[in-house]
Amino acid sequence: MGHPRAVPLDPSPAPPAVVLLSGGLDSTTVAAIAGREGYAVHALSFDYGQRHRAELDAARRIARELDVAAHRVVAIDLAAFGGSALTSDLEVPKDREPTKMADDIPITYVPARNTVFLSFALAWAEVLGSTDIFIGVNALDYSGYPDCRPEFIAAFEQLANLATRAGVAGSRLQIHAPLQHLTKAEIATTAIELGIDPSLTVSCYDADDTGAACGHCDACILRRDGFDAAGIADPTRYRSDS
Amino acid sequence: MGHPRAVPLDPSPAPPAVVLLSGGLDSTTVAAIAGREGYAVHALSFDYGQRHRAELDAARRIARELDVAAHRVVAIDLAAFGGSALTSDLEVPKDREPTKMADDIPITYVPARNTVFLSFALAWAEVLGSTDIFIGVNALDYSGYPDCRPEFIAAFEQLANLATRAGVAGSRLQIHAPLQHLTKAEIATTAIELGIDPSLTVSCYDADDTGAACGHCDACILRRDGFDAAGIADPTRYRSDS
Asked: What is residue A113's three-state secondary structure?
């Protein structure tokens, strides 16, 4: 990494926040936002049986690049339950129209994924004495996942305050979802403003081991449309067969 | 297992339910209740870095004994976050008065444990097409854990209905907590009525590898007091040093 750090974080008196970091553009932008807001970013990624490892490689690179206070990769076994193209041998759907994506819940939906991820974030926050969790969900270009909706995030925040010592002691635990009401174009613009190098991030549901994108899954289509609408060139590498 | 099965479950047209099964008396009783209510019990246990393996051995024995439809043991890494005597090198407190246990949240509390466990149960329920999750929390003899309270369970049920396809499709997902308002004595009585052999279950926070109990931790004290109050002999084996 020869170039300067994208988002320098102030080190010492910063309150800790747990940030879910997948290695995609959205969660990377959220991590940079949390840093800019003065939190000591504790990035949390999951090895959950996703088909491609490129996402986790990207998360590790981004955590280094953002100079986070800590980064944990927790192994969980969501694939044991099956049921998603992201964790099993089912085909990732290709070349769907964005207007169609929100019509039903796609096969790339991993059951209860954000509930599980936020639960682990809550566990770490509790041990850290943190009252702030950040997640990169997005309600507009949300690709049809029920656990990306604002009412889901609000319900988790309510749960978190009942589930924990912090809640019992009267602290107020907050789930921050700063991208919730942004379009993909606004997210791309925000990422660039925060100094993020988009080539570090991997959005594709079907990337190869080097992180090269398929160009045809929902995530690739939403990302490309977002950068196009923002008028920003996306340095995403596509696979030679795409 | 030479003796007859304790609770025969009706096999085929039963709707699936996911039941959190720790291997203790409470969750075993809940699994038997779910079976009696006509559900096909899908038992879910966690290898979460607990100090003793006896609990998981007990869960496996009980799943066989109850002839459940399926049993999964999912490995999760809660110990990575530290913070509890049940997953780290901290001392399990001994010989506390039951009246003192509820005064504060004890060091045996595992951060966000029930939130994490219920999240995985929700993932499996969703894959199974199940709308029923059972958990053995208990609000009376609850040993001070915030995530055993009725308001926590109600909040998780609300979350579950926002988080999932079932919720989106209008099905009503239910979190059943049939022991919520029972005393330990009532739970012991119910367990015996359902034909459970209590010697199969391990409640102790500090059991040795053979499942022998310490006799002095909160869980041992609550269990012993419960059986005493119910007038039932508890066949728990205690360690020779206890």
From this structure: helix
A110-143 in b/e burial notation, b at 16+ Cβ within 10 A? bbbbbbbbbbbbbbbbbbbebbbbbbbbbbbbbb
Q: How far lies A227's CA from each of A186, A202, A217, A223, in Å? A: 9, 14, 16, 6
Of B127, B147, B163, the CB nearest to A147: B163
Q: B residues 106-125 near A, CB within 8 Å?
A: 109-116, 118-120, 122-124
Q: Which of B78, B110, B146 sits opposite A168 (nearest CB)?
A: B146
The predicted pLDDT at position A7 comes to: 59
Optimal mutation site among B45, B130, B159, interface A, most CBs of chain A within 10 A: B159
* Amino acid code (one letter) for A144: G
Query: What's the ipTM?
Result: 0.83
- Per-residue pLDDT 10s for chain A (242 aa) are 445 455 555 555 799 999 999 999 999 999 999 999 999 999 999 987 776 678 899 999 999 999 999 999 998 877 777 666 666 666 767 777 766 565 555 566 677 889 999 999 999 998 898 999 999 998 775 556 788 888 999 999 999 998 876 655 667 899 999 999 998 899 999 999 999 999 999 888 888 888 899 888 888 888 898 899 999 998 899 988 76
DSSP state of A9: -
Name which of A82, A147, A158 is nearest B155 (Cβ-Cβ).
Answer: A158
Closest CA to A123 of B83, B138, B87: B83
Query: Strand, helix or coil at B185?
Result: helix
Picking from B76, B115, B147, the nearest residue to A76 by CB comes out as: B76
- Residue B89 C-alpha, separation from nearest chain A C-alpha, in angstroms: 15
Q: Do A163 and B151 touch (CB under 8 A)?
A: no
**A76 contact residues in B (CB cutoff 8 A):** 74, 76-77
Residues B30, B178: contact at Cβ < 8 Å?
yes
Note whether B89 and B29 are within 8 A (CB).
no
Q: Which residue of A has its CA nearest to B114?
A: A163
Q: What is the set of domains in chain B, with CATH numbers?
A: 16-230 (3.40.50.620)
At residue A102, the pLDDT reads: 54
Task: List A residues 38-77 in contact with B (Cβ-Cβ < 8 A).
Answer: 72, 74-77
Q: Which two tokens stand for residue A195?
A: 């100094």
DSSP strand E in chain B: where? 16-20, 40-47, 70-75, 132-134, 174-176
pTM above 0.95, yes or no: no
Backbone angles phi, psi at A189, to 5 degrees: -65, -45
Q: How far apart are the C-alpha atoms of A95 and A190, rounded to whole Å?
A: 26
Q: Check A155 against B151: CB less than 8 A apart.
A: no
Q: Is pLDDT of B9 > 80? A: no
